[in-house]
Amino acid sequence: MSGKTSDDARRKVLKGAAVGLAALASAGRSRAETAPTQNGTLPPLMDPGKLHTAGPFKSQPQPWPGLASHMTPRPDHGEKTYRGSGRMAGRKALITGGDSGLGRATAIAFAREGADVAISYLPQEEEDAREVIQLVQAEGRKAVALPGDIRTEAFCQKLVTDAVSGLGGLDCLVNCAGRQHYHESILDLTTEDFDWTLKTNLYALFWIIKAAIPHMPPGSSIVNTSSSNAYEPSEILVDYSITKAGIANLTKSLAKQLVPKGIRVNAVAPGPFWTALQVSGGQPMSAVEKFGSTVPMKRPGQPAEIAPIYVQLASTDGSYITGQVFGVTGGTGVPG
Ligand code: NAD
Ligand code: MG
């Protein structure tokens, strides 16, 4: 095939894909169902506001902690779309909450970038976790499954030790596990609930980071998960927002402290993302039905749309980035 003919053929394929995707996006379907996955075919350029569904979403309450595999539509974690380019070759990463949502998208991306990956999750999430383990193994990477509850220091220490022995070392820690449970009034927020959220989001982060640092060689990186709620707290997420502000703050102090060890620390602050946490008590169902509609892009993000920033921060491509919090919010400008 001559250069011109093959260029023409490529343009035809891309044009066809663009038309198909635009039609499906306007029909409220996800790019994950349709994106070209053949080697060398780039996704077409299109309006990001139309790239994924804007809902409305059907009411779908799930018992906590929720399963991505039981959501409608299923979130796009990049299963069919993320393409790596060796940016994390040989790296060894522990990702908490790696079974679903942002952690799962990060696990898929890291494996496709060449990393071995350990995921932590709750025993009730085995179904989601199995899918992630298979996806990581499909890339020829080592996958380590570490179920358990991170609300005790003893488990957090064991989690890190098991990740280190399973991976043969540790040079990347992504803290994605989190608890978000809404309460309309502070009067309904019990001490047990408050403790649950703080134990999961702040104490566990502290315990896991503390256990991980001694294993991490210079060049390692820690990526935490804050939230736009750290900056613009929702009135029904009082306890959660405290923890997310704490995570952003810890990221900055720890980054300075760990410069001499050669370990970078950053955080991602997501806006609304379509994940199991939202449908298992994170939001009232009335808010789930119009989830994402209040941000300028008027749709929620899909987990696949945030994984690239975790890759950037974890890989040596981010070598001069530490102590920063990056918003991925569909246009709110938070943090600004
Ligand atoms: P998700 O439910 O898919 O992931 C959260 C994970 O946390 C769960 O899969 C679970 O494995 C883990 N987890 C919770 N409690 C645990 C416990 N006690 N022990 C062990 N693991 C536990 O939801 P997600 O939205 O992908 O959440 C990932 C992170 O992103 C969370 O920290 C969340 O606060 C943050 N975040 C999410 C959004 C959003 O809109 N989805 C927005 C801002 C921040
Ligand atoms: Mg989960």
Q: Give the second-level CATH assignment, the architecture.
A: 3-Layer(aba) Sandwich
Number of domains: 1
CATH topology: Rossmann fold
Question: Strand content of the residues, in percent?
Answer: 5-15%
Alpha-carbon Rg, integer = 20 Å
* Average residue-wise pLDDT: 91
Structural features, described:
The longest helix is centred in the first third of the chain and has 24 residues, at 3-26. The protein has helices at residues 3-26, 101-112, 126-138, 153-167, 191-212, 238-258, 276-282, 285-289, 307-314; strands spanning 92-96, 116-121, 143-147, 172-175, 221-225, 264-270, 325-328. Helix 5 (191-212) links the parallel strand 4 and strand 5 (221-225). A seven-stranded parallel beta sheet has the order 3-2-1-4-5-6-7, with helices on both faces. The protein has one domain (67-328): 3-Layer(aba) Sandwich (Rossmann fold). 46% of the residues are buried. It is built from nine helices and seven strands; from the N terminus they run αβαβαβαβαβαβαααβ. Residues 65, 99-100, 121, 125, 128, 276 line the site of magnesium ion (MG). Magnesium ion binds at residues 65, 99-100, 121, 125, 128, 276.
Describe the structure in brief.
This protein has a single domain, classed as Rossmann fold, CATH 3.40.50. The protein is an alpha/beta fold.
